[in-house]
Amino acid sequence: RCRPQLSAAPPLPCRARAGLARMAENGLRDKVLSLDSMNPWVKRVEYAVRGPVLARAVELEEELRQGVKKPFTEVIKANIGDAHAMGQRPITFLRQVSALCLYPELLSEPLFPDDAKQRARRLLAVCGGQSVGAYTASPGIEIIRQDVARYIERRDGGIPANPDNIYLSTGASDAVMTMLKLLVSGEGRSRTGVMIPIPQYPLYSAGIAELNAVQVNYYLDEENCWALDVRELRRALRQARGHCQPRVLCIINPGNPTGQVQSRKCIEDVIKFAWEEQLFLMADEVYQDNVYAEGSEFHSFKKVLFEMGPTFSRVVELVSFHSISKGFMGECGLRGGYMEVVNLDPAVQQQLSKLVSVRLCPPVPGQVLLDVVMNPPKPGEPSYQSFIRVSRQLLPEGHPPTSPMGISPQIHQLPPAPAPFPSP
Ligand SMILES: Cc1ncc(COP(=O)(O)O)c(C=O)c1O
């Protein structure tokens, strides 16, 4: 006998259901989810970072492990910056605080320094049930967002940062996708155009494809150390206006994979361009600590925007991204980061807060790690000396620390790129 169905859909007659069962047994029944029926935008996504070249590299590694003879003995993966996978050791203090938060029984261990314990206690005190296993607020733990705001203020020479405008994330990738989701709309010629640099980091083209937005390429100037030229932005914008509505300008500074660091003047020009053309600026600044060529300096978009005065600083809509994956820490597996929004329409910001709440919260170990990066040991604290020493060991020999925290980047720079990625 057929049992009554609980769903609102009318039940299939028993004979039809028996027919479907027979087709399934014979392997004839169509999948509900097939290549034809699936989301077509997902099919268009390409992500070279994890694509067929990487799959082949993994195969080659396996063959080498099995003793297959090749004209090489090692595979060096250059698909993504993954410092620990390339042999960088984790920074002790970051891991001490993380370990204490994950396993608070260690708080009674004399092995751990007092400043690591004090930080772990402070973070645990604001976790539900004093456990990093509890959900947190959706934009992230409040005191960590405050620490991020203070970090940004130190970095930007005192320009205020509001913790309410800071959203912690599962790495920068998650935050970039969240913002793109808010920005993409329209159909046909009114579809959102998103301007991205070429060469780019493929998160952008993949996100644009997934959301069925229009990718608008602007080309970096290879002859000029991959500099960004505003004339090229104008060209790309003019051309794109014929078939979509460009509303977003993505900047990667310092650049990946090109390694260029934008001058302050260039950033000003880009901000003026965004202001004139009414574009929303997305500044991917995940390599902000990895700047070490003579004469090169990182300027955040937020700082330059505010230094340009109220005509711009009250108007230009900006989001900037940072991450624990890069910098001197390279903790990409722990998945932490943040974005700061500036001049977002308050009604849209409510929508953003709603959107991030659907994911409940970013991983708490990533939030903890981010907090220690934003708030490293200070002079006079027990771990300060060793933290600075370990961070300096990550520098190419002879380079002084250059980051705002007095901490140094870890990746050797090959000329002429001033940031970690050499020119191809
Ligand atoms: C420019 C750029 N943005 C974002 C990301 C992703 O960073 P996360 O690991 O924080 O998601 C990367 C990773 O390599 C990157 O190079």
Automatic annotation (TrEMBL):
Cofactors, names only: pyridoxal 5'-phosphate
Claim: Lipid biosynthesis is one of the keywords in the record: no
Locations listed in the record: Cytoplasm
One Gene Ontology CC term in the entry: cytoplasm
GO terms for MF: L-alanine:2-oxoglutarate aminotransferase activity; pyridoxal phosphate binding
Keywords carried by this UniProt record: Acetylation, Aminotransferase, Cytoplasm, Phosphoprotein, Pyridoxal phosphate, Transferase
Function as written in the Swiss-Prot or TrEMBL entry: Catalyzes the reversible transamination between alanine and 2-oxoglutarate to form pyruvate and glutamate. Participates in cellular nitrogen metabolism and also in liver gluconeogenesis starting with precursors transported from skeletal muscles.
Protein name as annotated: Alanine aminotransferase 1
Lineage: Eukaryota, Metazoa, Chordata, Craniata, Vertebrata
